[in-house]
Write a structure and sequence with these properties.
Number of domains: 2
Number of strands: 9
Oligomer: single chain
Shape: elongated
Structural class: alpha+beta
Order of helices and strands: HHHHHHHEEHHEEEEHEEE
Strand content: 15-25%
Helix content: 40-55%
Distance between the termini: 13 Å
CATH architecture of the largest domain: Alpha-Beta Barrel
CATH superfamily of the largest domain: Regulatory factor, effector binding domain
Number of helices: 10
Length: 286
């Protein structure tokens, strides 16, 4: 499966550079997707964040070096990207439970984290309701925050942004602007070109942009639109993981150069029957 082959090629690059600088952008290019999407796919499929996987693999190799070689600890620290013995000691202890010095003693108990190799097993244990829709470009207006961080940090920061926007009453003002499809309160992530992106809480509208708000033009695109039912945010997070690990690999589609969109409708978001939508930008595999 080409999609999985590209992910494994990206892992090949990471493994070959554990003792050098690893570029997330380069790995994403090999996987033929944005940096953000690569980190998210890796995290969902491997069940471990990309940064944590790299840290574990480096500390596994560092433990081998400590036990089998005579290099100085500071040299091993530098080899795996740590500028100071203190930061290296902390990272090593977090993984192995002992210090680098203790790791050199005979009989020291250490951990080894093997290299990942991706193989997709499609569970298919629950249906996913979706439709494919091509939409002309549309304009959104609302509030935005800029992010330049890992996917894991974004999963923490974006809900906080939602919380502040709701508490401030800004959502009410945004909803007054809604006058065209897609109808609903939109969460729009412009994460197509890297780890550096804007996240909008907005609506589709032809009205003027009020002071203090921002606008963005969503390009014409084909979308896979998935129905999500359940309490937020757990239901949508679980659905997004299933889309990446179960639907996308066998769909004949891949990510298109357009934003990710979540569409939230009126209702109690903590209710088990709350409904919203996930819009995945897609293009046919060449």
């Amino acid at each position: 499966m080409e999609w999985i082959s590209r992910l494994n090629e990206a892992v090949e690059y990471i493994e070959a550079n554990l003792d050098k600088e690893i570029s997330y952008e380069k790995a994403a290019q090999i996987a033929c997707c944005s940096t953000f999407h690569f980190q998210r796919m890796f995290s969902y499929i491997a069940d471990v964040p990309l940064a944590e996987y790299i840290r574990r693999r480096r500390m596994t190799l560092a433990a081998f070096d400590l036990q089998c070689g005579s290099e100085k600890i500071i040299d091993i620290a530098l080899k795996y990207g740590y500028d100071s013995p203190t930061s290296f000691n902390r990272a090593f202890h977090n993984v192995h439970g002992v210090s680098p010095t203790e790791a050199r003693t005979k009989g020291a108990a250490l951990k080894a984290f093997p290299r990942i190799s991706f193989k997709i097993t499609i569970k298919g244990d629950a249906e996913m309701n979706y439709k494919i829709l091509t939409m002309e470009a549309f304009r959104i207006v609302g509030v935005k925050e800029h992010y330049n961080m890992s996917v894991e940090e974004c999963f923490e920061k974006v809900p906080q942004f939602w919380g502040r926007t709701i508490q401030s009453g800004t959502v009410t003002e945004i909803l007054k602007l809604m006058d065209k499809e897609p109808y609903g309160l939109l969460g729009v992530s412009t994460c197509m070109n890297g780890q550096d992106f804007d996240y909008y809480i907005a609506v589709a509208t032809d009205q003027e942009t009020p002071d203090g708000m921002a606008e963005y033009n969503v390009p014409k695109c084909t979308w896979a639109i998935f129905e999500c039912i359940g309490a937020m945010p757990t239901a949508i997070q679980e659905l997004q993981k299933r889309i990446i690990t179960e639907w996308l690999p066998t769909s004949g589609y891949e990510y298109a150069n357009a934003p990710d969109i979540e569409v939230y409708f009126e209702g109690d978001q903590q209710a088990d029957d709350y409904k919203c939508e996930v819009w995945l930008p897609i293009t046919k595999k060449s």
